[in-house]
Every structure is written in structure tokens, then in C-alpha cells.
């Protein structure tokens, strides 16, 4: 079956800038130029939450791995961490000296990476939002920054036409990819962590093998690429472009698989759900759309075999040779037969319990941070009142 439009959400009052599914697919977050963060329920007839806090456009949103927090970055130079309940409480911190373009949690949920028009990439702790370090070799706005799946690397994309790869431990730039002919709008890691893909204003999508720092595949489109997302299998990539289309690329065969029309005006953002069954898109038409992937599981159940070609969208041959990212996918049932049903159930139960505990810790930490912020505000008001009282007494004395 072809991908199909499942639902569309209306509620934003300006262009949608970013979308992200919660890990359990029950919620979808979106940011907009209207300065609001929206949390949409995937259950029919459930009302959406509009979170108010940012003073300017919300340009990026991302769910934490536990799904209990959403990070958002804004043109107001701040990052907010929201608890995704009806109250919509958040902690806020001034992350940069200019617009925040990108926020992304590490896979363990402990760190947050942000990117900004102040030309820096910064890394923070999620708990208490403590600043850890800054990466500052870009010479223009940084549009996007992402952690690798294992958290050891960071990739960033910039208006200086480069994609930079950083080592999180040494905080050094390992490599700069300079093949783009325009601003690089979006970059992301392949699920294996061995490849990266980037798209930009030169209407291309490029894939590199970061172990050998070489270009694997190159797709030439007809319009600015604003956003992209890897399918969890690693075999497909979806892009959102200014020509209002979403395109699904088959990375195994190095070809364009689908062109999807739905948005009126530029498609600004796109993201697969964590299991790959759905993907969401947002556009300048103020709409959020949810699509069913409909990929056959057999299409991505095996190890990707090296391909001896890599063609571009327009049919010419790309500079890439093979896409062999060392991809090992879901184990087959025969591989799992060594474990008993009881063992599998115990492991699942333990995993669920741990995820629940981590989620509760996230919420507790955020609640403490919110209370701390309120206490600080109360202290400031008390100081102000005391100072005013002292001034009144002094004036009376004089």
C-alpha cells in the first residue's frame, strides 16, 4: 500500500515549524510561528492542549525518551521544558543570545543539545538545566543539532554551508562536510549511528558514511529541503520541501519512492514516529498532518545489502557508491527462540517498570525546578517590597 493521510489537525494561527511524536504515539507535539506549543492527542475526539509561555515563534520541539517532557526552543532566545499534562507547566532558561533553532534530547534523556543563530551549539543537563559546554566553530547561524543514537557524537548543520561532526567527550570537531551549495537546514543520524543525512537550500539531500567521511548518496530535487527524518529501519528517508511536497526516498535502491501532496504552500517539517508506522508533517498552511506509512514489514526486516550504485532523484548517477551502514534490524522469531516466553515477559515487565520510574523522575525534577523558579520570583518580589518600604521610610524621615 502507498502512504495515506490519516488525520489533520487545525489549531495553529501561523506556520508550523516542528513536529514530534511521543514515544508511545499517543501524543504529537508541534511548534509554530504563532509562539504556541500544541500537544495533539492521537485518540479521536480528544482535545488538544495549547501551551502558552514563549514570547515569540516556537521553532523546534522534541519529546524526551520517556515521553514525559517536551523541549521547545524559540525566537525569544529561551528553551522551555514542559510537563505534558493539562496544566502545561514548564521551566524556562535563557539558552542563547539569539534565536534557538533546534532542541534534541540524548537517547538516555539526561542531556539536551541546542543550536542557535548565535552560531553556537550548546549542551545542557536536563535535570536543573545546567550548562555543560558550547561548540563554536560555525561562522553562521546553526539551524539544527542532533545527538547520535549512542550519545557519543553530535552533528550540526549551519548557514555556513557546512555539516559538522563533534565528539561529545573531547568537544572537538571531528570532521566538516562541505559538499552543500547552500544553507543546510536539517541534519540527522541514521538509526545505526554510522551515517548522517542533510538537506538544504540547494535542493539536495546528501548521505555520508561518518566512519570514512565519504558521500554515499546524493538526491537532487527541485526545491529547498526544510526537514528530513529517517525511518527507524534506516532504509527510508522522508523529506519536506518548499514545493509543498513530502518525498520518501528508498535508500536501499537509491531512488525516489513517493511524492506526497497535502500541504498548501511549503512543507516545513516532518518526522517519523519511533516505530515508523506513522509520520507527521507541518506546513506554512498552519496545518499538522499525520500519515500512515504502510511500508511492508518485509521491506525492512533484513540486513541492508551493499548496493553498487546510488542514483539521484532526477535519474542521473550520484557520487555515492553503496549504502552499507552496518544495519542490523529487528531479530526474527527464530533468533528469539532461545528465550522462554516467561523470560520475555519478565524482561518486558522490567523494562516497562524502569521506563515508568524514569518518567516519574522526569516529572518530579521538573516540578522541583518549577517550584524553585517560583520561589526565586517570590524572593525577588519580597526584596522589591522591602526596598520600596525603606525608600518610603527614608522619604518620611527626610
UniProtKB/TrEMBL annotation:
Glycoprotein recorded as keyword: no
Domain of life of the organism encoding this protein: Eukaryota
SUPFAM superfamilies found in the cross-reference section: WD40 repeat-like (SSF50978)
Gene Ontology CC terms: centriole; ciliary basal body
Biased composition (Basic and acidic residues): 333-343
SMART domains: WD40
UniProt KW keywords: Coiled coil, Repeat, WD repeat
Functional note: May play an important role in centriole assembly and/or stability and ciliogenesis.
Protein name: POC1 centriolar protein homolog A
Organism: Platysteira castanea
Amino acid at each position: 500500500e502507498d502512504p495515506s493521510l490519516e488525520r489533520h489537525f487545525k489549531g495553529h494561527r501561523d506556520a508550523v515549524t516542528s513536529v514530534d511524536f511521543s514515544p508511545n504515539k499517543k501524543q504529537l507535539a508541534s511548534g509554530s510561528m504563532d509562539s504556541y506549543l500544541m500537544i495533539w492527542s492521537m485518540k479521536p475526539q480528544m482535545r488538544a492542549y495549547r501551551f502558552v509561555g514563549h514570547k515569540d515563534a516556537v521553532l523546534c520541539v522534541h519529546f524526551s525518551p520517556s515521553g514525559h517532557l517536551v523541549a521547545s526552543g524559540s525566537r525569544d532566545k529561551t528553551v522551555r521544558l514542559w510537563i505534558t499534562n493539562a496544566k502545561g507547566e514548564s521551566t524556562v532558561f535563557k539558552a542563547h543570545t539569539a534565536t534557538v533553532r533546534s532542541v534534541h534530547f540524548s537517547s538516555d534523556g539526561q542531556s539536551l543539545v541546542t543550536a542557535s543563530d548565535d552560531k553556537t551549539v550548546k549542551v545542557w543537563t536536563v535535570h536543573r538545566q545546567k550548562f555543560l559546554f558550547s561548540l563554536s566553530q560555525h561562522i553562521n547561524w546553526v539551524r539544527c543539532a542532533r545527538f547520535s543514537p549512542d550519545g557519543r557524537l553530535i552533528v550540526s548543520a549551519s548557514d555556513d554551508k557546512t555539516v559538522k561532526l563533534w565528539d561529545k567527550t573531547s568537544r572537538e570537531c571531528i570532521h566538516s562536510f562541505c559538499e552543500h551549495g547552500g544553507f543546510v537546514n536539517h541534519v540527522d543520524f541514521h538509526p545505526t549511528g554510522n551515517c548522517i543525512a542533510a538537506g538544504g537550500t540547494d535542493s539536495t539531500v546528501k548521505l555520508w558514511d561518518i566512519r570514512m567521511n565519504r558521500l554515499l548518496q546524493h538526491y537532487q530535487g527541485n526545491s529547498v529541503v526544510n526537514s528530513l527524518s529517517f525511518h527507524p529501519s534506516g532504509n527510508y528517508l522522508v523529506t519536506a520541501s518548499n514545493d509543498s511536497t513530502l518525498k520518501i526516498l528508498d535508500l536501499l535502491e537509491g531512488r525516489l519512492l513517493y511524492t506526497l501532496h497535502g500541504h498548501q504552500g511549503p512543507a516545513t517539517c516532518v518526522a517519523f514516529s519511533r516505530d515508523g508506522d506513522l509520520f507527521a508533517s507541518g506546513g506554512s498552511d498552519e496545518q499538522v498532518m499525520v500519515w500512515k506509512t504502510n511500508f511492508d514489514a518485509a521491506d525492512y526486516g533484513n540486513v541492508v545489502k551493499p548496493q553498487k550504485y546510488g542514483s539521484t532523484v532526477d535519474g542521473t548517477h550520484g557520487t555515492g557508491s553503496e549504502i552499507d551502514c552496518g544495519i542490523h534490524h529487528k531479530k526474527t522469531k527464530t533468533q528469539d527462540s532461545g528465550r522462554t516466553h516467561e523470560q520475555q515477559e519478565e524482561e518486558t515487565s522490567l523494562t516497562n517498570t524502569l521506563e515508568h520510574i524514569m518518567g516519574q523522575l522526569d516529572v518530579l525534577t521538573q516540578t522541583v525546578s518549577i517550584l524553585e523558579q517560583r520561589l526565586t520570583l517570590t524572593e525577588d518580589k519580597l526584596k522589591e517590597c522591602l526596598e520600596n518600604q525603606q525608600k518610603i521610610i527614608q522619604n518620611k524621615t527626610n
